[in-house]
Specification:
about 20% strand, Rossmann fold, Regulator of chemotaxis and motility, ST_Response_Regulator, CheY-like_superfamily, five-stranded parallel beta sheet, phosphoprotein, alpha/beta
């Protein structure tokens, strides 16, 4: 299956995504923020798909998407967000879409919605 990078600062959400995707035979790697994800890609790690939260410490998902697009423009990105007190989730997701995310999902989302987005993103 696919090698997927999950960039999510909330442990419960990260662990849930790992559980679902590994059950479906995907190889899953995690990062707790955008900076960690960008460092992985800069170090030469290659992914078939990146799923990133938008609101995270150190480097948010928007910044991470911009960095990833320059280093690995062929890697599809799915953006997810539940918003925050400072940022409406729709605003962050709209920005992610404009920056090239192939799909955006508002938290909480159904697993079927995520799986459909993964299928579209990976062409399978």
């Amino acid at each position: 299956m696919s090698r997927i990078l999950i960039v999510e600062d909330t442990r419960l959400m990260r662990d849930s995504l790992v559980d679902v995707l590994t059950e479906l035979d995907h190889e899953v790697v995690t990062a707790e923020n955008g900076a960690e994800a960008v460092n992985m890609i800069a170090a030469g790690q290659v992914f078939d798909l990146i799923i990133t939260d938008i609101i995270m410490p150190e480097m948010d998902g928007i910044e991470a998407i911009m960095e990833v697009q320059t280093m690995s423009p062929e890697t599809p990105i799915i953006a997810i967000s539940g918003g925050s007190a400072r940022l409406e989730k729709a605003a962050g997701l709209d920005t992610a879409k404009r920056l090239g995310a192939v799909a955006v999902l508002e938290k909480p989302f159904e697993i079927d919605s995520l799986l459909a987005a993964i299928q579209v993103a990976t062409g399978g």
